[in-house]
Target: Putative aliphatic sulfonates-binding protein
Amino acid sequence: MFRIPLTPLLPLAGLVLAFSMAGTARAETVIRVAIGTQDTTINCATGGLLVRELKLLEKYLPRDGKYQDVRYDIQWKNFTSGAPLTNEMVADKLDFGAMADFPGSLNGAAHLKAGKKSIFLSVLSGSTIGSGNGIVVPKDSPVQSVAELKGKQISVPFASTAHGMLLRALKAQGFDLERDVTILTQAPEVAGSALQANKIDAHADFVPFADLFPYRGFARKILDGAQTNAPTLHGTLVNADYAKKYPEVVTAYLRAAIEADRLYAAEPEKYSELIEKVTGIEAEVNYLFHGPLGLQTRDFTWKPEYRQAIATSIDTLRLLKRHDSDLRADTFIDDQYIRAAFKQAGLDYEARLKDYDRLPLKAQDALTGKPITDVARVAQVWVEGEPKVRHYVGPENALADVKKLEAAGKKIRIVYAQDRKLGIKLLANQAWFSADARGQLNAFLLKDAAVAWAQANQGKVLDYAQARAGSAAQVAAK
Model:
C-alpha cells in the first residue's frame, strides 16, 4: 500500500493549528460592559431601563478595528439607591452606574479612597432650578408650607440629593437644624409606610417619590425643589480606567442613551407605560416627569448649573462628614465622551448646551381645536384607553372636557396643570386654583401662591373639587 510520508506535512499541520488557535483566541476575546441602573429612579431611564429593554446598547457597540473579533458580555444590575451601586463599582463588579448628584459625588470620593477614579460622564435628566425633589406631608396634615414644619419630625434618605434640598429649604426659613426640627434617615419605601401611618410629619425625597406618593393618594406635596432654586440632576458615571481602555465602548453607551432619549421624546406615553411595566411606577407619574413640559428636562449636556450642582454636592457631603477626599468637580466631570457621542449622532453639543427649553408641546386644544400658542396655563388629560394625552390651553377647558368625557362613560386616568408661578407640571387634583372674572383658572402648588394671585387679579381661590364644579357650571351655561 502506498503511504504518504507524514514528516514533511508536520510543519504545515502545525501552521494550520496555529492559525486555528489564533482565530479561536480572537473569537473568545471578551469585553465586559457591566451597568448598574436604578430603575425606580425614573430619571435614570434613558441611561438604564430603556437602553436595556430596547436593546439599544447592542446597536451601537463598536464591531470594527480593534473590536472586530470582540464578544461583549453585557451585564445589567438594578439597585434601589446609589450607595450599593457605588460599592460594586469600587469592587470592579460594575463599569458604569447611573445616579444623582449627591450619590454620584460619594461615588467619586469612594473611588479616590480606594486609590481609583470614576468619571461623571453626562447628565441624563435634571432641572437647573431644582424641580423633581420635593417635600411631602400626610394627606390630611394641616401643614401647607415648609414654614409650618418648625418643631416637626422630617425624614429623608440621608446624603441624597433630597437631603441637600431639605437643608436648603429649612435654612431659608431661618431654622436651627439642631433645635427647630428633627431629621430622621428613611429610605423611600420606609417613608411611604410612615406617611400612611402618620408616624412622621413630613418626608423629603428625590425623583419620583415626592410626586409618586401624592399620586397614590396618601401624601401631599408642600414644596417642590424649584422653590429652592438649587439645580439637581441624575447622570451616568464610569470607571476611569475602563474609559481609558475602551473609549469607543463608553461613547457607544452614550449613543444608546441619546437614542433612548429620542424615542422617549417622540412617544412619551408609550415609554411611560413601558417604565410602569418594568418598575410598577405608574405611567401617569412617568409622564409627569418625561412628557412635554415635564417636571424635569432630559438633557445630556454639562450646563454650568449642573456643574455647580456637583460642586455643591461635594461640599455639602464634606460638611455632613460623609467624605474627606480631595474630589473636585472640575476633574470629576469629563465631557469628552458625551461630546464624541453627540458628534457621532450628528447633534450639536454647543447648541444644546445653550438650550434650556423643556420638551416642547406642539398641540391643539382638544376642546376647541385651536392651536396652543401659550403654555403658561396648559392643562392635560389622559383618558383611559387612549394612547395619547389630550392637551388644553387652560385648566378650565380641560376640566370642562373631563365633565363631558365622564358623562359619556369615559374614565380619566389623570389631569395635569402647570403651576403659573413656578412653571412646573402639577397633578391637578393636588393643586390650588385662582379663578378670575373671565372664568380662567391658574394652577398653583401652594395655597399661598393661589391666594396672592387672586388678590392681585380680583379672583377667588378654589381647590380642585371647586374648580371642577366651576368648569362644569360654565359648560352648562354654554
Q: What stands out?
A: Residues 170 and 176 are 8 Å apart (CA to CA). The longest strand covers residues 118-127. Residues 247-266 form the longest helix (20 residues). The radius of gyration is 26 Å.
